[in-house]
Amino acid sequence: QQRDAQLKEAEAFIRRSLDLLPSDSDALFNLGLVLSKKGDAKGALKAYEDSAAVNADDVELLYNLAMKYEEANRKDEGIQAYRRALKAQPSFGKARCNLGAALAESGDLDGALVEFLEAVRYDPSSPTPWQNLAVLYHKQGVSTVQGLAQCASKEAAVEISRTASHALGEADNAWRKVMELVDDQRTKQETVTRLAQVLQLRGRAVAIEDPAAALPQQLMVPFLRSPHAWSRPTVTAAQQPADACVSSASWLLSTYPMGRSHDMVLSAGFIRPPGTAAFSLSLIHISEPTRPERIS
Q1: Which residues, at least 6 apart from 18, have a Cβ–Cβ distance to it below 8 Å?
Q2: CA 79 to chain centre
């Protein structure tokens, strides 16, 4: 109730300010923030649009406007607003991450890949761009492997397996980066599950051309799926001399039995940079950024 009263008071103050100067971009921006916090998405969008009509180069304004367009299911306008924000500030990692997610959902996976790669370059310590990059590469790997069923020759199968192996290798790297950046155990365990999926699927793809080369991938799967994954140090077969692979395989498989195998099904969706450390497999939106009040 206290929060509601404070928001009501803030809205009244801003509207009185706008009565005196209707084209005050800062006041319109702040009105959008307040209305958004009150749950008035339509009013917030209108305030942001009015502010952008006066100040078209405000990065955070364009960012918030883009998110409101997305919430209103005006996806194309949201994409354009993200692009305008990035034109003003190319290093805005969160905007790149959101733009990548919007492009991926519109079917432009190549464009999404470019934005996710730029997002991790500008904001390498945030796990969310790495998560989205991993999901994209993971999806590409799954889709490519599914094409093996239509192969008419061994040569065609090998070509597809190489493409799949590359995508899954990039997914492997991205999921491992996520592991380094997140703290909560639930997120770590979900990431471990997907990393195990990637390793198993990549092993299947690699085995088409060279069965022996798939061994390091498969060795790690039972280890990752165990309750003790990542809790005890180990050296993967890929890091050991070739003659150590057999003993490593024997130890891993005896300590972490494989159990029943499952087909790889990926359901993770692209996400926005979260306001919390918890990882969600469904699409989420970040909270609007706060910024210091401006002094006129």
Answers
A1: 24, 27, 28, 31
A2: 17
Q: Look at residues 60, 74, 122 and name the one whose alpha carbon lies nearest to residue 97.
A: 122
Residue pair 141/168 in contact (Cβ under 8 Å)? The answer is: yes
Residue 210 has pLDDT above 90, yes or no: no
- Give residue 4's identity as a one-letter amino acid code: D
Tokens in use for 278? 């918890």
The identity of residue 60, as a single letter, is E
Q: How many CB atoms lie within 10 A of CB 251?
A: 13
Whether the Cβ atoms of residue 97 and residue 132 lie closer than 8 Å to each other: yes
Q: Which residue has the tokens 């209305």?
A: 35
The secondary structure of residue 239, as a DSSP letter, is G
Nearest to 165 by CA among 130, 138, 133: 138
State the Cα–Cα distance between residues 36 and 34, nearest whole angstrom.
5
Give, for 117, the enclosing helix (H) or strand (E): helix 109-122
- Chain centroid to Cα 24, Å, comes to 35
Position with higher pLDDT, 211 vs 23: 23
For 153-204, write each residue's pLDDT tens digit: 888 888 999 999 999 999 999 999 999 999 888 888 888 888 888 888 888 8
Contact residues for 196 (Cβ-Cβ < 8 A; gap 6+): 220, 221, 224, 225
Q: Give yes or no for a contact between 92 and 125, defined as CB atoms under 8 angstroms apart.
A: no
pLDDT per residue over 33-82, tens digit each?
999 999 999 999 999 999 999 998 899 999 999 999 999 999 999 999 99
CA triplet 34, 274, 72: central angle to 5 degrees?
55
Q: CA 162 to CA 74: how far, in whole Å?
A: 38
**pLDDT(130) > 50:** yes
pTM: 0.73
